[in-house]
Amino acid sequence: MINQRSEGIVNKMNQYVYHILGCGAIGSSAAIQLCRMGGDVFNIYDFDTVEEANIGVSEYIQADIGNYKVEALEKHLMNISPLTTVYTNNERFTSYAPTGEGRDIIILGFDSMESRLEAVSIICNKIIPKEYQPKCIIDGRMGAEHYQQYIISKPTLSKYKKHWYSDDSGSQEPCNAKATSYCSNMSGSFIANAVRKIVMEQPYNEKFSFNFPTMMLQMSRLK
To answer: Cα(179)–Cα(56) distance, rounded to whole angstroms?
Structure first.
C-alpha cells in the first residue's frame, strides 16, 4: 500500500471518485497528491495538450510535450499506483456522469472563471436523484503568488455564484495571474488536505486564501 506511512492520518480515500476538471497546474497537482494519498478512481477532463510552458508549473515532464494532458496525467497516476482507474476525457466538459451514493468529489482547475461557471451549471442543472448528488465541489483559484479555495458542499448553482466573479471584473484576482511552481504545488496540497478532512468527516474551512509574499492565511469559520 503506497500510502502506508500516512495510514491513521488519512484513509477512506479509495471510497470516493475524483473528478478533475482542468488538468493544468491545479488539476495535475491535486490529482497526483490524491493518488499518493490512496485515491484510486479518477475522471479527468482537459482538451489541451502539454506545452513546454506547462513543465515549470505542472506535474508534466519533457516527454509529455505534445501529448494530451489527460493522457500524460493518466500515465503519471498509473506510475504511482498501477491499481488506479483513470477515465480520460480529452474534450471540453459538457456532461456530468454521477457515480452515486454521494461519492463524487469535483475539483475545478480551469484557467478561466467562465469555464468554472459553465461546468458548475452543467453539474448542478442535471436532474438526478438526491443520492446521486456530488459530495462537494472544490474550486481552487491560483495566481502567481496567491491562492484562493472554495468548498461548496451539496452544491447548487446559487451557492456557487456567491463566490463567483467574471473574468473581466476579476482581472486583479489570482485566477488571472501567471503561475509559479510553488503556488501550483501548494494548491494541490491545500486541495488534498481539504479532501482528507471531508472524507474523514473532520471540520474544514469553506473558503480561504493564502498570499505567498506576506505568508498571510485568511480563513472562514470551520464547517
So the answer is: 9
6/86 Cα distance (integer angstroms): 23
d(CA 93, CA 123): 10
What pTM does this model have?
Answer: 0.94
Q: Which three cell numbers stand for residue 21?
A: 476538471
What one-character DSSP code corresponds to residue 146? Answer: E
Closest to 173 (Cα-Cα) out of 138, 209, 206: 209
140 strand-pairing partners: 149
> Which residues does 169 contact at the CB level (< 8 Å), separation at least 6?
none
Q: What would the pLDDT profile of 71-122 be if each residue is shown by its tens digit?
A: 999 999 999 999 999 999 999 999 998 987 889 999 999 989 999 999 999 9
> In this structure, are residues 68 and 49 in contact, taking their beta carbons and an 8 Å threshold?
yes
